[in-house]
Design goal:
Length: 720
C-alpha cells in the first residue's frame, strides 16, 4: 500500500495540473522518469498523438513538485514542448538547469522555502538531455499542506509571451540594482552571459544629460549568471575602464544615433577593443565569441543613452536578425523602467541626505547620545518621514526629539524638515514641550492646505512627535507626546519599561478631537537610559503593540553602563528590526550623566530690597571656593545682582538663583514668578529703564529666557 498522502485539491501542484487537463499526472514525462501519481498508480504512459488535430500540441504549461531538499517528488511535463527534459524521481531540480544558473536559482528556491512568499515569473532556461535549452517563465510557490516543499510552475515561452513576461518582471521594483538585475536575467534567454552597464549618473540617481561621448562613465549594474569570473573582468558595482566606456559609447552612438550592434566573432572583438586590459574587463571568458550591444535609450529629444546591455554567446551560435530585433524590443520596452528607478533613486538619496543631516552629531558632558536611522528596504514605498534630533539648549538643558511624518518621499521629507527645524527653534527660544507641540499642531494643519501649504497634494495629518527636555541639575525630564509611542526608560538598577504617558491624537487632529498636550515629568538619575523610537522599530504583525514595546524594553535592559552607546544602539536595532522592513527604523538612546553636586549651587531668596546684596555675597563666596579667575569673580556677582534687581522690581514671590559650573563656562539663572519678557532697549547705560539688561548683555556670551509653570527663568552664560 502506498503511504504517500493524498494531496489537497487546492494545492498549487494540483491547480496547475488541473489546468493541464489532468488532476494528477498518469504518464508523460513523469512516467518516463519513473514517477507515478500520488496514489501510487503505475499506469503505463499513454502515447501522445503526433497529429495536428491534437489540442495538446499547443500546451505550454508544466509543473514540478520539490521537497525541502529541492529534489523532484512528482511532475507533469507531458506537453510536447517539454520533450527532452529528463526529470527523475529523487533527482535534484538543479539537474534541469544550466550549470551557470544553479547558484542563482537555488538561492531563489531556498528563499521561498524560508520566507513563504512566492517568486513569480522569473525568466529561466532549462537544459534538455541533448544539450539544447528551453526558455520558460518559472514561478516558485510554497506547497500547500499536507505537502512540504515547493511547487514550480513552468510556462514555455513563445517569443511574444517571453517579451511580455520579461517586461512585467522588470517593472516590479523601483530599486535601480534590482531593475538592472531583472533585465539581465531576461536577456540571458538569448545568450550565455548578460550584463547591464549604466551611466554613472543613472546609477546614482543624478540628472541625465546628453553628455559628450568622451565623458561617459559606465558602471556595471548587473551580471548573470552567478559564477566565478576571470581576473580583471568587471563585476557588479565596478566601474568600467574609461577606454571601455568610451568604446561602448562610440559603438552604440554611431552618427549620434543610438543603435544596437553585433560583433560576430572573437577576433573582431579583440580587434575592436585593441587593448588586453579592456579585453579582460569586457570579455567574460575564453568561450565567449560574439556579443550584441543594445543601448538603453531614454525617449527624449535628443535621445539620451542611459546605459548599454550586452549579451555574449559562444562560438557557433551567431545572432540571427530576428533575435537581434527581439533584444532591441525588450530593451526598448524596459528602458523607461530603468529611468523610473533612476528618478526613485534620486528622490531616495535626497530624502536620505536630509534625514542624515537631522541625526544628532554628539551629546555633551551632561548626556551621552547614540542614534540609528535605518531606511526602509528598496521594495518599500520609499524613504519615510522619520526623524530624531538631539541638541543642547542655551540654558544647559538638552532637547531630545523624535517624530514620524505620515507618508513617504519628498512630500514627507519636506514636512519632516520643516517640523524638525521649527521644533528646534521653538525649544531654543525657551518654550516648554507642550507649547512646542501646540505650534507644530498648527503647522501640520497649514501643511494640509494644498493652496497655502508646503507641498500641494500632500497631507501630514496624523504625524506624531515626542519631545523630552533633560535638566542635568535636577535630573528631571519633562516630556510631551503627540500620538507617539511611549519612550522606554531604564533606571540605574536595570529595570526598564515604557513611560506611562497619556495617549494623545497625532498632530493636525480635527478641532473636536484636540486636547491640551500633557507634560509628563519624571526623574532620570545619572546612569538612566532613555530610548525614543519610531514605530518601524517595534511593528510586528505577529505581536500586539504592547508586546512589541515590551520586547524593546527587554532589549534596552541588556545595555550595561560600561557598554559603548552607539554599539548598544546597533544591538537593540538588530535584535528587533527585521532584515527587510517596510518602514524606516529610528532609535535614539540617551544616557543621563548630569552635573555633579559640587558643580551646582541653588539659593532661594525673598523678593526684598536686600535680595541683590545677599545674592552677590552667596555668589562671590562660591566663586572663590571654585577658584575662578579674578575677572569672573568681579563680573558674575554684578551680573547676578542686576538680574535679581529686575526680578524684585518687576515680579512678585520668591526668587531662585542657580549657578552651574559647565565646562569652560558658568551658567547663571534667576527665576521669578513674573510673566513679562525682558527686552533689551536701544537706550544707553545712563538711561533709567533697561540699564540692567545692557549690563547683562555686555558681561555675557549669550543670555535668554525660558518659561516655567510658575513664571520665568532668565539665564546667562559667562566664560570662566
Amino acid at each position: 500500500m502506498d503511504s504517500t498522502p493524498t494531496p489537497s485539491p487546492s494545492s498549487p501542484f494540483d491547480l496547475v495540473s488541473s489546468a493541464l487537463g489532468r488532476y494528477i499526472p498518469r504518464g508523460g514525462a513523469a512516467a518516463a522518469a519513473g514517477l507515478g501519481n500520488a496514489q501510487g498508480d503505475r499506469a503505463p504512459r499513454r502515447r501522445i498523438p503526433d497529429g495536428p488535430t491534437d489540442a495538446r500540441q499547443d500546451q505550454i504549461l508544466g509543473v514540478v513538485n520539490l521537497d525541502r531538499d529541492l529534489r523532484i517528488t512528482r511532475c507533469n511535463l507531458d506537453a510536447p514542448v517539454f520533450a527532452g527534459l529528463e526529470p527523475a524521481a529523487g533527482s535534484p531540480f538543479a539537474d534541469l538547469l544550466p550549470p551557470g544558473d544553479v547558484p542563482t536559482v537555488t538561492r531563489r528556491l531556498r528563499q521561498v522555502l524560508e520566507i513563504g512568499e512566492a517568486h513569480v515569473a522569473r525568466i529561466q532556461r532549462l537544459r534538455r538531455g541533448d544539450g539544447s535549452e528551453l526558455v520558460v517563465s518559472m514561478s516558485i510557490l510554497p506547497a500547500a499542506a499536507p505537502d512540504d516543499g515547493l511547487t514550480v510552475s513552468l510556462i514555455a515561452m513563445a517569443r511574444r509571451l517571453h517579451l511580455y513576461a520579461a517586461e512585467n518582471a522588470i517593472g516590479t521594483s523601483l530599486d535601480i540594482g534590482e531593475t538592472a538585475q531583472s533585465l539581465a536575467e531576461s536577456l540571458l534567454a538569448w545568450g550565455d552571459v548578460a550584463a547591464v552597464d549604466l551611466d554613472f549618473a543613472v546609477w546614482t540617481g543624478e540628472g541625465v544629460t546628453d553628455q559628450a561621448q568622451g565623458r561617459i562613465r559606465l558602471r556595471r549594474a548587473a551580471l548573470v549568471p552567478d559564477r566565478a569570473w576571470p581576473e580583471g573582468y568587471v563585476t557588479p558595482g565596478g566601474d568600467l575602464p574609461s577606454d571601455a566606456s568610451r568604446l561602448l559609447a562610440q559603438a552604440v552612438l554611431r552618427n549620434d544615433a543610438p543603435q544596437a550592434i553585433v560583433i560576430p566573432d572573437r577576433e573582431s572583438v579583440e580587434r575592436l577593443l585593441d587593448s588586453p586590459r579592456v579585453v579582460r574587463a569586457l570579455v567574460p571568458g575564453d568561450r565567449s565569441a560574439s556579443v550584441a550591444c543594445i543601448p538603453l535609450v531614454l525617449d527624449s529629444a535628443p535621445p539620451v543613452v542611459l546605459g548599454v546591455a550586452e549579451v555574449w554567446r559562444r562560438a557557433g551560435c551567431p545572432f540571427r536578425d530576428s533575435e537581434l530585433f527581439d533584444l532591441q524590443e525588450l530593451v526598448a520596452r524596459t528602458a523607461h523602467h530603468v529611468d523610473l528607478a533612476r528618478q526613485h533613486q534620486r528622490e531616495h538619496t535626497q530624502v536620505l541626505a536630509l534625514q542624515r543631516r537631522l541625526l544628532p552629531r554628539a551629546g555633551g558632558h551632561t548626556i551621552e547620545i547614540a542614534s540609528i536611522y535605518q531606511p526602509a528596504t528598496p521594495d518599500s514605498a520609499g524613504v519615510g518621514g522619520d526623524w530624531v534630533n538631539s541638541f543642547p539648549l542655551p540654558d544647559g538643558r538638552t532637547a531630545l526629539v523624535v517624530g514620524d511624518v505620515v507618508g513617504h518621499g519628498l512630500g514627507a521629507a519636506a514636512a519632516m524638515g520643516q517640523l524638525s527645524m521649527e521644533a528646534r527653534a521653538l525649544l531654543s527660544a525657551g518654550l516648554a514641550p507642550d507649547e512646542v507641540l501646540e505650534h507644530l499642531d498648527e503647522t501640520v494643519t497649514l501643511l494640509d492646505d494644498t493652496e497655502s501649504g508646503l507641498t500641494a497634494g500632500y497631507s501630514a495629518l496624523g504625524s506624531t512627535c515626542c519631545i523630552a527636555l533633560y535638566d542635568p541639575v535636577s535630573h528631571h525630564v519633562a516630556l510631551s507626546s503627540a500620538g507617539h509611542l511611549p519612550p522606554v526608560l531604564m533606571l540605574p538598577n536595570g529595570h526598564a519599561g515604557p513611560l506611562p504617558i497619556r495617549p494623545h491624537p497625532g498632530l493636525g487632529a480635527e478641532f473636536a478631537l484636540r486636547e491640551p498636550f500633557d507634560v509628563h515629568t519624571f526623574r532620570a538619575p545619572p546612569g538612566s537610559l532613555l530610548a525614543l523610537y519610531t514605530d518601524g522599530l517595534v511593528e510586528d504583525r505577529t505581536l500586539s503593540i504592547d508586546e512589541s514595546i515590551s520586547r524593546l524594553a527587554d532589549a534596552v535592559s541588556t545595555v550595561h553602563p560600561w557598554d559603548a552607546l552607539q554599539q548598544a544602539a546597533r544591538h537593540v536595532v538588530s535584535a528587533l528590526a527585521p532584515v527587510r522592513q517596510r518602514d524606516d527604523v529610528t532609535l535614539l538612546l540617551a544616557r543621563m550623566i548630569g552635573y555633579r553636586k559640587e558643580d551646582t549651587a541653588t539659593w532661594r531668596l525673598p523678593a526684598r530690597d536686600d535680595a541683590p546684596a545677599r545674592a552677590r555675597a552667596h555668589v562671590l563666596a562660591l566663586l572663590r571656593q571654585w577658584h575662578t579667575r579674578g575677572g569672573t569673580q568681579n563680573d558674575v556677582p554684578l551680573l547676578v545682582s542686576e538680574l535679581v534687581t529686575n526680578a524684585v522690581r518687576y515680579a512678585t514671590g520668591p526668587i531662585t538663583i542657580r549657578l552651574i559650573r559647565a565646562g569652560p563656562s558658568l551658567l547663571c539663572e534667576v527665576g521669578d514668578t513674573g510673566n513679562g519678557r525682558p527686552h533689551l532697549s536701544r537706550g544707553g547705560l545712563l538711561d533709567d529703564g533697561g540699564r540692567g539688561l545692557h549690563i547683562v548683555h555686555r558681561l555675557t556670551t549669550r543670555w535668554g529666557v525660558r518659561w516655567t509653570d510658575t513664571g520665568k527663568v532668565v539665564w546667562a552664560e559667562v566664560a570662566r
